[in-house]
From TrEMBL, chain A:
Protein name: SWR1-complex protein 4
BP-aspect Gene Ontology terms: chromatin remodeling; DNA repair; negative regulation of transcription by RNA polymerase II
GO CC aspect terms: NuA4 histone acetyltransferase complex; Swr1 complex
Entry-linked Pfam families: SANT_DAMP1_like (PF16282)
SUPFAM superfamilies: Homeodomain-like
Subcellular location: Nucleus
Known role: Component of the SWR1 complex which mediates the ATP-dependent exchange of histone H2A for the H2A variant HZT1 leading to transcriptional regulation of selected genes by chromatin remodeling. Component of the NuA4 histone acetyltransferase complex which is involved in transcriptional activation of selected genes principally by acetylation of nucleosomal histone H4 and H2A. The NuA4 complex is also involved in DNA repair.
UniProtKB/TrEMBL annotation, chain B:
CDD domains: YEATS_Yaf9_like (cd16908)
An example Gene Ontology CC term for this record: cytoplasm
Classification via InterPro entries: YEAST_sf, YEATS, YEATS_dom
Organism: Cerrena zonata
Nucleus among keywords: yes
Family: Belongs to the YAF9 family.
UniProt-annotated location(s): Nucleus; Cytoplasm
Alphabetically ordered keywords of this record: Activator, Chromatin regulator, Coiled coil, Cytoplasm, DNA damage, DNA repair, Nucleus, Transcription, Transcription regulation
Keyword check for DNA damage: yes
The organism's taxonomic lineage, starting at the top: Eukaryota, Fungi, Dikarya, Basidiomycota, Agaricomycotina
YEATS domain mapped to chain residues: 7-177
Protein name from the UniProt record: Protein AF-9 homolog
UniProt subunit comment: Component of the SWR1 chromatin-remodeling complex and of the NuA4 histone acetyltransferase complex.
Length: 538, 257
């Protein structure tokens, strides 16, 4: 039963246009039909003419045919040397893809693949003995010039027993080294004899010692602990070896034509004393007792606490500063004198208050969050925060006025300001009496004086705080004494300075006292007279 | 600038000044040229710094006071044209001719930074030479001829302008201009002052100068006066005690009776 059958059953007529396509499909169907049988074919038919044909046939047969044609590639077990520089290295084997003939042909041209990673350090060659002596002299001179007191090596870590097997190994390696050598002396056998007679002097390196050092360095590629371990001469510390090697290398390189100056510099920068110090320190660090460690930790904790406290204080202080940061008014109050102006002022103040409250809240929130986590970062400066900008929009007219004033005065009085700051410094450190006099300055901290300007001669002296009648008689006394009175316009002191005015004051007081005594006496006299007259009457 | 508008508490600063006049007798030739033929003297009234400039022919005026004084107003006698003379720059002085002495009102206005009110003082314009009599009577002024021979008349009053608790900015200005100190010793005549009649002789023979010696002398004179007063007081106190005892005695006698 095909789709057509169903269409027939449902009485659906296909368009004429579709007819040729149908035929074509049919022919396709025919091909598919040839392969499909039974249920598969029925299902295929149900797909209808619109669907593209699916080739359900598998190519299993073709695959199996290909498989039959596959030929496995040959693998060959090939011998190789892990280290081409080491002639005594063991013979190793590995499997390599490829036919034996091909690989054998190739291995002759190519070395072991990983051989390219086997690189040695480039070390300067040791010079001949003559040049060596010259260099040593130079080094000694340099040392004398730089540090007159050579520190004695503190540690004697020289290893005693040297085994010869290491020597042999080293020899082999050196031979294997591809680098060409133009050494004048290559006989290592002599070394043994000379080493026994070597002097133990710290600074004096013999040529033999040096030679061994250089060879060891080369052999172990500057792995200093190995070099130190293999070095057979006694009385040398690791630092001695390094120091000598670096110094000599620097000399040798200097002697060469195309040397790298930065390398020489780095070589010369090695300081033996610093190195030994560093190691000593590290050792002491390692040898700390648990008590010491605990103490150190407690100190660290203490320091952290201090830091936290300081940060907290900073936060609190900045908070306080923001509280103090209210607009300073120097504008005239005239605009606030009308009732409307007052209402304006009130509104402004309300807004400002709200802003400040908001800002405080924000800052509290800001500071609250991090406190839970640990150290508090110092708050953002007010000028940078956004809330400050908000306030500025409110303060603008006032602040603009202020800043305008500031600019004006700065522009006009720049020089003066510089001068005045110097004077303020002078004032700050409190002038001597002489200087004070020169500037006309006087500190009247104990006296209560009304601020303002006054002529010295019209100064209100405490001695003048008298009744008019008393003053009159005081003036009379003073005129008798040929002393001008203070406070009058006709009689003036000749030199009304601070000193003379205090003298005037003293004089006035004494005159007042005199007058008091006189008056007292007069009173008594009159009393006596009265009594006498009374008695006379009796 | 806000902190500049703060008064510096517990501090006062002063500037020594002198005010007064010099007067010279006009020569007959000058009198002829002068528009007012009845004028006999040429005088200059001025406010100056107390110290005199070396080799100057005027009293005081070593410093330019315009660093703290904005204006000095001299109010002359009403008979002068524009009797109120405002001087707004150094030297703060008015020169005129005249025939009579009168009281000049001197009003010193300070610069704006000071924030201080103006101060007023008076000076008696002195034209005729100083004369002193022991009995205190005012003698006849010498004739113009003799006065002309005696040379210029100087009448100067020393004073100090004291700023109590000055504003910081003003203090800065003042301290930037320390005053020239008065000379320690006397080289020129002493400025005459009516309070010290004994100085008349010393004031003759040239342009006087204010010195620190004058201050010392005055302090000494005051000290002498004070001591005199104290001895007087002691004397009177002794009398007082005497009277007290007398009174006590009398009262006891009354009590007995």
């Amino acid at each position: 039963m095909s789709a057509n059958d169903i269409l027939d059953v449902l009485n659906i007529q296909r368009d004429g246009v579709n007819q040729p396509a149908k035929k074509k499909l049919k022919s396709n169907d025919q091909v598919a039909h040839s392969r499909q049988t039974g249920m598969a074919r029925e299902l295929y038919n149900l797909l209808g003419p619109n669907t593209p044909p699916i080739n359900l046939s598998n190519n299993n047969n073709a695959n199996s045919r290909e498989k039959l044609a596959f030929k496995p590639s040959p693998w060959t077990r090939m011998p190789f040397k892990a280290n081409s520089k080491n002639a005594h290295g063991p013979q190793l084997y590995h499997w390599v893809k490829g036919s034996k003939e091909f690989l054998e042909r190739e291995s002759k041209e190519k070395s072991y693949f990983f051989d390219k990673y086997n690189v040695g350090v480039e070390l300067p060659e040791l010079v001949d003995e003559e040049l060596f002596d010259k260099f040593m002299d130079e080094i000694k001179e340099d040392r004398k010039a730089s540090e007159p007191k050579q520190e004695q090596p503190s540690e004697e870590k020289e290893e005693q027993g040297q085994n010869k097997s290491s020597d042999g190994e080293k020899d082999g390696q050196q031979d294997a080294n591809g680098v060409s050598k133009d050494k004048s002396e290559t006989d290592e056998g002599d070394k043994q004899q000379t080493s026994s007679e070597k002097d133990n002097e710290v600074d004096d390196w013999t040529y033999e010692e040096t030679k061994e050092l250089f060879e060891l360095c080369k052999a172990f590629e500057l792995k200093w602990h190995l070099v130190f371990d293999r070095f057979r001469y006694e009385g040398r510390t690791l630092e001695d070896l390094k120091d000598h090697f670096y110094k000599l290398c620097a000399k040798i390189l200097e002697h060469q034509e195309n040397s790298n100056p930065s390398l020489i510099e780095s070589l010369q920068s090695y300081s033996k004393t610093k190195e030994t110090e560093r190691k000593k320190y590290l050792e002491s660090l390692l040898k700390r007792t648990p008590a010491e460690i605990a103490e150190e930790e407690s100190l660290v904790i203490e320091a952290r606490r201090f830091e936290l406290a300081a940060k907290k204080m900073l936060v609190e202080r900045s908070h306080l500063l923001t509280l103090l940061d209210s607009p300073q008014s120097s504008q005239s109050v005239q605009q606030y004198q009308s009732s409307q102006g007052l209402a304006n002022l009130y509104n402004n103040l309300m807004i400002l208050d709200k802003h400040q409250k908001k800002r405080q809240l924000q800052q509290q929130q800001r500071s609250n969050i991090p406190t839970n986590q640990g150290p508090v970062p110092p708050p953002i400066p007010v000028a940078a925060s956004s809330s400050f900008k908000k306030d500025r929009t409110f303060q603008t007219h006032l602040q603009q006025y202020l800043s305008g004033l500031l600019k004006q005065q700065q522009a006009s009085g720049v020089n003066l300001k510089h001068e005045s700051s110097a004077i303020q410094q002078l004032l700050a450190k409190r002038l001597t009496v002489k200087e004070e006099e020169a500037y006309g300055i006087y500190y009247h901290a104990n006296e209560k004086l009304t601020p303002g300007v006054i002529l010295r001669s019209t100064q209100k002296l405490p001695g003048l705080q008298q009744r008019q009648s008393v003053l009159k008689s005081v003036n009379n006394v003073l005129q008798e004494l040929d002393i001008p009175t203070v406070g009058g316009t006709n009689w003036k002191p000749i030199m009304p300075t601070r000193k003379t005015m205090t003298k005037y004051d003293e004089l006035l007081r004494s005159v007042v006292a005199l007058l008091d005594v006189k008056r007292g006496k007069d009173k008594l006299e009159s009393e006596i007279k009265l009594i006498k007259s009374q008695r006379g009457l009796q | 600038m806000a902190e500049q508008r703060v008064r510096v508490r517990g501090l006062s600063i002063h500037r020594p000044i002198i005010y007064g006049n010099t007067a010279t007798v006009l020569t007959p030739e000058e009198r002829k040229i002068n528009p007012s033929p009845d004028h006999t003297h040429r005088w200059t009234v001025a406010v100056r710094s107390a110290a005199s400039a070396p080799d100057s022919d005027i009293v005081g005026g070593a410093d330019d006071l315009s660093y703290f004084i904005k204006r000095v107003t001299f109010k002359l006698h009403e008979t002068y044209p524009n009797p109120t003379r405002n001087i707004e720059k150094h030297p703060f002085e008015v020169s005129e001719t005249g025939w009579g002495e009168f009281e000049v009102q001197i009003r010193i206005t300070f610069i704006q930074e000071s924030g201080e009110k103006a101060i007023t003082t008076y000076h008696h314009l002195k034209l005729h030479p100083w004369t002193v009599t022991s009995d205190g009577q005012i003698p006849e002024a010498p004739s113009l001829e003799t006065a002309a021979k005696m040379g210029p008349v100087h009448s100067w009053q020393y004073d100090e302008i004291v700023f109590h608790d000055p504003y910081q900015s003003f203090l800065n200005i003042l301290t930037a201009h320390p005053p020239t100190p008065l000379p320690k010793i006397r080289k020129k005549p002493v400025p005459f002052h009516t309070a010290n009649p004994g100085s008349l002789e010393a004031s003759k023979g040239g342009v006087p100068e204010f010195t620190q010696e004058m201050e010392k002398e005055e302090a000494e004179r005051l000290e002498i006066a004070r001591k005199a007063v104290i001895t007087e007081t002691d004397k009177w106190r002794a009398k007082l005690i005497e009277k007290e005892k007398e009174l006590e005695l009398l009262q006891r006698q009354i009590g007995d009776v």
